[in-house]
Amino acid sequence: MKPIISIQNLTKTYATGVHALKPINLEIHAGEIFALLGPNGAGKTTLISIICGVVNPSGGVVKVDGNDIIRDYRASRTKIGLVPQELATDTFETVWATVQFSRGLFGKPDNPAHLEKVLRDLSLWEKKDAKIQTLSGGMKRRVMIAKALSHEPKILFLDEPTAGVDVTLRREMWAMVRTLREAGVTIILTTHYIEEAEEMADRIGVISKGELILVEEKSALMTKLGKKQLTLQLQSPLDAIPESLAPYKLELADKGQALVYTFDTQATETGIAALLKRLNELGIDFKDLQTRQSSLEDIFVSLVSNPS
Amino acid sequence: MNFLAIRAIYRFELARWFRTLVQSIISPVISTSLYFVVFGSAIGSRMSAIDGVSYGAFIVPGLMMLAILTESISNASFGIYIPKWTGTIYQVLSAPVSAFEVVTGYVGAAATKSICLGVIILATARVFVPYEIAHPIWTIAFLVLTSVTFSLFGFIIGIWADGFEKLQIVPILVITPLTFLGGSFYSISMLPPIWQKITLFNPVVYLVNGFRWSFYGISDVSVGTSLGMTLLFFFVCLGIVWWIFRTGYKLKQ
Ligand SMILES: Nc1ncnc2c1ncn2[C@@H]1O[C@H](COP(=O)(O)OP(=O)(O)OP(=O)(O)O)[C@@H](O)[C@H]1O
Ligand SMILES: [Mg+2]
Asked: What is the ipTM of this complex?
């Protein structure tokens, strides 16, 4: 399948000398939800801004649906809706005027019915004649989303869409994003909330210090990097782990009340059976056991702290 | 050509103006009236006619120019500075619009306001002094050309400015003095010879004189020179705007 966005050797060095992007290569598939994860200053916003035409690239090529973002900027930009990270609204304008402006700016003829639908979907219809300065922060963010959707983009960029948005609204936004995806819109979002990526994304890219250190299907990522932990609640506490258990790299937890065994789900031999047998031989009894799969958050933290 | 985008920008900008329409009309009417009360009647009655034109009538074109220059600059500079300041400029930068379309929208809106303002002043002046326009086509041409040129100039200032002070500096420090010293209220032939020479370096002199010529057929400098200088300034501004968009100066990192 032809990618809807293809990024080749994209670099960015700001005037200040900051290398915000080392050569980035990435393809986004049509119709997917792609989540870009990374710590503060990793280069997420820079990457998005370049694709959308807000920041100039220093090198490399980006194509949107086959159109070069510089040479064929009209064709590429027409397809893109952008919701930037920073709240930026036309304070003194009404909601309606500002979405109507956005639609026109993207060369689309007036279409009040579409704008009404967008505003209704974002629960902004009641506020359509309100001045933006009278809206709450969460509403302003939705106005920015409405602006981006006003011109019916094929690709939607959401740069931290749920920052400063309450839980209920966040869930509503997730639902909205899914509806958009069902309608065929490709969505690229950045987030600091791992649960958000875990919940929504089809694929995940992890960016750190301007480098894309990993791009993976979410499910593959979870299994590939996913570690499981087996926790055994002991009948009687241990002072130390017996010598003979050293190969299992066990940890004592809960003041010696629990033994924790971390294993790789991908390994052919998890070693659980052998471990349990060994414990039995040593006369270590346990009253309970649980396993826990590591979350995307654990994966993310381990990736960013020691990139391989 | 993305005409819908031009229309969107133009409409959005004018809508802001319409919201303060009363203020936008009242203030030039009041200030023009004041000028006529002070300069036209109080002082003007003691002034002799200049080249056969009564002093009150003589200052009409200059007054219009003064207002058009300041209004064009302030409208256009605010028009582009505000989205830069609030951050909403991101949308213009990410839209499928060319530099030409962006400039046409913003500068067109600013120039439209200036032209309307010029007409309001002209109408108000009629209440105080009788005047006739000898070459109306040229009046319109100078009015439009000056409004567009100085709106372009304002656009440049709006992009260059990174604070509200900078936005005010050029109009206050450069335009106002140049206009007052540019023969809006007097004929440069009334100046001592040395000042007559120095004044010729003031571009506003050419604007005011060309404009005044279109009213009364009198001018301190030749009309061709006036038009040439105005066009020159227009093309210089156009060149700078073109450069701004090509390089992304202060617009794009
Ligand atoms: N306009 C700019 N001028 C100079 N440097 C910049 C500019 N914008 C960003 N940077 C730098 O580029 C790097 C990447 O910034 P970017 O905003 O892309 O990060 P991010 O991943 O979006 O971070 P966050 O999660 O905090 O939003 C940072 O080091 C930042 O300081
Ligand atoms: Mg960011």
From this structure: 0.85
Mark whether A128 and A57 lie in a shared domain: no
Residues A160 and A32 in one domain: yes
Answer yes or no: are the C-beta atoms of B63 and B121 closer than 8 Å: yes
Does A88 map to a domain? no
SS3 at position A280:
helix
Q: What is the DSSP letter of B132?
A: -
| In a shared domain, residues A175 and A68 | yes
Q: How far is B247 from chain A (nearest CA, A)?
A: 10
User: Tokens 């203030």 appear where?
Assistant: B27
Which of A130, A149, A168 finishes a domain? A149
Does A45 fall in a domain? yes
Please tell me whether residues A75 and A162 are part of one structural domain: yes
**A45: enclosing H helix or E strand:** helix A44-52
pLDDT in tens, B40-94: 777 767 777 777 778 888 888 888 888 898 889 988 999 999 999 989 999 999 9
- Ligand 1: nearest atom to the Cα of A12: 12
Kindly report the pTM of this predicted structure: 0.83
Range of the domain at A111: 95-149
Residue B196 exposed, middle or buried by CB count within 10 Å (0-12, 13-18, 19+): middle
d(CA B206, CA B214): 12
Question: How many domains does one find in chain B?
Answer: 1
* CB < 8 Å to B7, chain A: 104
Same domain, A50 and A137: no
Instruction: Say which residue the tokens 């002094």 belong to.
Output: B129
Tokens 């000898």 locate to: B134
Which CATH number is A75's domain given? 3.40.50.300
3-class DSSP assignment, residue A107: coil
Return the sign of the alpha-carbon dihedral for residues B94, B98, B103, B105: negative
Q: What range does the domain containing B59 cover?
A: 3-43+51-247
Q: Distance (Å) from the C-alpha of residue A95 to the closest C-alpha of chain B?
A: 12
Give every CB contact of residue B20 below 8 A, 6+ residues apart in sequence. Answer: none
B46, B143 Cβ separation under 8 angstroms = no
Residue B65 and residue B204 in contact, taking contact as beta carbons nearer than 8 Å: yes
Gap from CA of A85 to ligand 2 centroid (Å): 6
Helix (H) or strand (E) run with residue A25 in it: strand A19-28
